[in-house]
Amino acid sequence: MAAKTVHKIATFLGFVSIFHAAYSAVQHRSYLRITEQEFTTLPIDIIIQGIASLFAVMYGVMHIAGDFKEIRAVVDLENKSWETLRNLPSFQIFNHRGRSLSPEYLVAETDRRDKKR
Fold first, then answer.
1. I need a surface site. Which of 19, 50, 67, 84 has the fewest CB within 10 A?
2. Where exactly are the structural domains of the chain?
């Protein structure tokens, strides 16, 4: 649990640092406009801060997100048998109103069974 907290803090600090690098780049650009100098490139400290912040955010997000899944679908399907491949439990509904249309439907017996569950 503590490791997740450390990674969340690293991600947050990385985002803050990226925003600070972006703000510094905007400030540098406006300084060049005021002093009427030509813009050639950003100072090396802003570039290093931006790259280091990007890696900090990537590191934190990779550890917060958890394990990656395989891109190939075959890897997940190899562990399943043919019988369970088309088994969709979310569509298996056994208690529905269609049973009341059956000629063998008895209200009292069905209600007793439902109450036992």
1. 67
2. 1-65, 73-115
